[in-house]
Specification:
Radius of gyration: 22 Å
Order of helices and strands: EHEHEHEHEEEEEEEEEHHEEHHEEHHHH
Low-confidence stretches: 130-148, 263-278, 346-350
Structural class: alpha+beta
Shape: globular
Number of helices: 12
Number of strands: 17
Mean pLDDT: 89
Distance between the termini: 25 Å
Helix content: 40-55%
Largest sheet: 11 strands, mixed
């Protein structure tokens, strides 16, 4: 069995790109795969399957019964599984069934927590980080200092219900940090103003108090057959989170073995001398970036969201902020790849592959109508917020509900025009990343 990681891309979108960037930044070995690859028995080439965040239910549909069985057999026969957030939820009893874990019902959990939170950790190899020599090479490992605390990021996680003593909690939730949010409420501001969480919960009609999380499992480990399974509700792949990235490195070492024996990918800086996009496709990409940026700017101007980090925004309750954020980040990434890695363009022809050109045209065909309707919807929702309480699924204005249903469907998971647009963007992004890896 090879000391390699299969990275399941499907139905991850923003979370997949976040994880990709974190693994690449830390030179951790992985290969992108899709559900169809799993159905074709590709897991026999790997030692670990990594599944990033995203809607677990959509991932399950993508895998189908055949893909689910392939993963189960892979882990049962000694392959390791690591899932973050949605990838962790996928492995629970209502998904792959790798561990005897249920997810707490939405009405009984804190459904909209996001940001930094303390962890209470147990003694385990993942809570060690590489000690770097002066020359930058990796040496022995040293434990994280207990005195500094263990603060990481959770982004709208589910919550685990565990009654199986064979499953070990590697970390449980502690106190939320002041800059964290519960829904669109800043935790520190609520505490400092001496506001009452119970009163706010009555208004929002959801659980908000982050203290409800204290003591609940955040990272767990168990076994399915001969394979290790680690499930994390903590996003160790959060951009620029050095402690989180250190844990990622430790996880890779723990689940794969000695990384020094693995040939790590090298970053390529030769793209600047290679051909660029031809004028037609360049204009279309610029048009898509401009439209995505305009949606973000409208939200910022109208106090609907603000930036939390390089990939995530915080939005007001009742607005589909994550969807707009996802569109923006993925389209910007496509633009950046086409500009920085033009090695994917046919050598000597200064032109894109025909299939990629067609995909760009199809994205434009679906995204621009979405963009025009979404601009109108955002302003309608902005005004509706002034008139009363709205959520992502409920609003007294029937015209708003009709547009929402067309753009996103009535489900909280991705649907409607948005799903068609994001699928096309995601397919192109996957192919471009794979092509860029070949040229690196």
């Amino acid at each position: 069995m090879n000391l390699k990681t299969a990275f399941l891309w499907d139905e991850s979108f923003l979370w997949g790109l976040m994880a990709y960037e974190a693994l690449k930044k830390n030179s951790l070995p992985f290969e992108l795969i899709r559900s169809e690859d799993i159905k074709n028995n590709c897991l026999s080439n790997y030692k670990m399957l990594f599944v990033p965040g995203g809607w677990a239910s959509n991932k399950l549909k993508s895998l189908g019964d055949e893909g689910v069985e392939e993963i189960r057999n892979f882990v049962k026969n000694g392959g390791n599984y690591f899932g973050i957030c949605g990838g962790a939820g996928l492995a629970t009893l209502d998904g792959l069934g790798l561990l005897n874990i249920k997810r707490r019902a939405t009405k009984n959990r804190v459904p909209s927590f996001s940001g930094r939170i303390k962890l209470k950790i147990t003694d385990h190899p993942i809570w060690i980080k590489p000690h770097e020599k002066e020359d930058g090479s990796s040496n022995a490992v040293e434990r994280n200092s207990q005195s500094t605390g263990h603060i990481f990021h959770a982004w709208w996680p589910s919550q685990f219900v565990i009654q199986d003593r064979r499953i070990k909690a590697l970390a449980s939730y502690g106190e939320a940090m002041p800059d964290a949010f519960s829904s669109d409420l800043c935790v520190g501001d609520i505490i400092n103003s001496k506001s009452n969480w119970s009163e706010l919960e009555a208004i929002y009609k959801i659980n908000l108090d982050p203290d409800r999380l204290i003591g609940e499992p955040a990272v767990v480990e168990g076994y399915y057959g001969n394979g290790k399974v680690i499930l994390s509700l903590i996003h160790f792949d959060t951009p620029d989170d050095k402690p989180g990235h250190a844990v990622l490195i430790s996880l890779w070492q723990y689940l794969l073995g000695n990384l020094t024996s693995i040939s790590l990918p090298k970053n390529s800086n030769t793209a600047a001398s290679m051909p660029k996009l031809i004028q037609g496709e360049s204009k279309i990409i610029a048009e898509l970036v401009e439209a995505a940026q305009d949606l973000i700017d409208i939200g910022c101007r109208n106090f609907l969201w603000f930036r939390r980090n390089s990939m995530l925004f915080q939005w007001r309750r009742g607005i589909r902020g994550l969807e707009y954020c996802t569109l923006y980040v993925l389209i910007k990434k496509i633009s950046g790849l086409l500009d920085s890695y033009p090695g994917i363009i046919k050598k000597g022809e200064h032109d894109l592959d025909e299939s990629h050109k067609m995909q760009i045209l199809k994205i434009r065909e679906t995204f621009l109508p979405f963009y025009k309707m979404a601009k109108n919807l955002l302003m309608m929702e902005r005004i509706a917020l002034q008139n009363g309480h709205i959520t992502y699924e409920k609003c007294d204005d029937d015209s708003i509900q009709a547009i929402r249903a067309e753009l996103f469907s009535n489900s909280k998971s991705y649907g409607g025009m948005f799903k068609e647009v994001i699928n096309r963007i995601d397919n192109l992004l996957y192919e471009l990343i794979k092509a860029c890896q070949k040229t690196s």
